[in-house]
Amino acid sequence: MPAQLPPGAPALVLAVPGAGDEASADVASVLSVENPHVEVRLAYLGDGAEGVGKLLAELGADRPKEALAAIVIPLVTGPHPRIYRTVREAVAQSGILATVCEPLGPHPMLAEALHVRLADKGLARVDRMRLFNIAAPVDGVIVATAGGEEAARAAETTAVLLAARLALPVVAASIDSAPSIGDAAERLHRIGASKLAVAPYVIGPEADIQKVADAAEAVGAGYADTIGAHYAVVQLAAGLFGAAVEEIF
């Protein structure tokens, strides 16, 4: 994140699936506190493209005409066509200049966040100095994401990163399409894994977490909490904003 910005610099807009939640509010709060020179706004996609477009238009009205008014960061860990479609429709309706950033992942920091969430539920153990596995209470992990088959394919990179940390087989699955959590469990069973855990590879509001709980129960697996407002999310959002700003100034 740049240490300072000129007057009229673009706002950092977190595009949040749904109508808002505690995790996204916490991410925005930490970004604001740590970067008081940046205008941080939350745009709730549950309001639809029109509602988000109005918010973006307001940001444009406060900035020089034809200047970049907003850097929009969808609060998702991977590709999510429906969410990106809504964001781009909102930008088009607003009439402002805006940059729409790539997803937060895949990234090693998100693999670390998944490891921590698994450990929080007793589904992984960690060396607190290095945050690597020291003795596994499970022998296979499913990284479950939202956003369809494209998102599940992209999550395979994070699955590899998490497998390296845990020294266990880890496979990717989709919460809302194929391959399902059940499909992933069958794949792990075929290679000899019997004690499974599900790691939701989502911030939170972009997925129905009850589906994760139900699917995990159906395959006899434990499951971790969502990534939520883990500091990795804050750092990655700040990094995307900083990279976009560097291209302008």
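^ that was protein a. below is b, sequence first then the tokens
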Amino acid sequence: MVFGLRDTTLPLLAPGILLLMGYALLSGIGSLPWSWRGGLAFAPYAVLAGGLVVSCIFHCGRAVYSLLLVAIGHWLLVQYFAGGWRGGVVADIVYAAYCDLLPLNLILFAFLKERGILTPLGFNRFALIALQVATVALIAGAGTWLQASAAETLREAASGMLHARLLPPSFDFWTHLPQPAILAFAFALIGLLARLVITQAPLEGGSLGALAAAAVALHMVGQGPAPTVFFTIALLILSLAVIQDAYRMAFLDDLTGLPGRRALNRQKKNLRDHYAIAMLDIDHFKRFNDTHGHDVGDQVLKMVASRLKKVTGGGKPFRYGGEEFAILFAGKGKEETLSHLEDLRVSVATSTFRLRGKNRPETKPSGGEAPRDGGGGKSRHRQEALAGTARIGVTISLGVAERNGRDDTPDGVLKAADQALYRAKNAGRNRIGK
């Protein structure tokens, strides 16, 4: 499976910009009015509230849990430096435990399926967070329920485990983060990056960006407002990722990754006086599904969509529904689009699928070189049949129309393109109708 670099990096664009803005804000924070600097302490909680509202509206439980985890981190750092446990073994335990648990929780929630917020499985996730908080609080506050000597022994053991040196001191001399936390962050970053490459989903990019921002915040403890700035950015990245994911679900087709009909309807409102619209569908698509199954049908749709994404001439492809697709050519007439549509038709027609048969052996049969019968193509196809494979070809039919007069509407042009499509199908398929 081939993944586009653009599809992988796009979800990281907003997090990257926000992280750069965080560094820019720190460099100029001294010049801000005092009222702004005083209000910075409340910024994480304001962003948290907005993010929770957005996440609940779009039923994104994973974002809710992630937002709460990040907000807990900011609250702990406020307590660490403004409360009564500045320094000491208690503060070290709480800080190190949070540094270890945050990346592990974020990667866990990334791989768990979305199960809603106010559901039994959703409450289980809340319970998991509460259990971790209670365990750390119990160890940190051991002096309230254990004798002093026993409490000190428990705390020292917990601190030693959380600050264990698994690698040479040169590995972590540059940061407050303990070595187990650095390894946990590295593990989570690699896991989330792998998820992003596979799914290209905004939530994966958001989790990756939020994890990076939280790591910077935890690294910069004690450096004035820096932790607050970067925890706020982490919360903002997660909130924006929810909005991006909601847009993706509303306007992008989940199977093909192309914009859907809702996006097409919105795009039609922005068309000017001169444009063309092409409609196309996959020839004999129902036969593909009936003969080879819906899984193969889905692969055919994905293949055609991958070719559509590369259409030239400035065309914007959309999945119209089922096996039908549409392409908008803004600023072009019908004749100007024909060469680009012909290239698309040929690109699809020259693509084939190799199907794996149910009885095909897992390993290539032995027996030396294949027999030669003078008809290389027939011999190859016979070998494929014996091995349980088959090649299937895919073709498309297209119809194109343009705006001809002032009274023409986008819907009218779309209907004319659809009529041209049916003329192409009636003429034998695998051609362009005008």
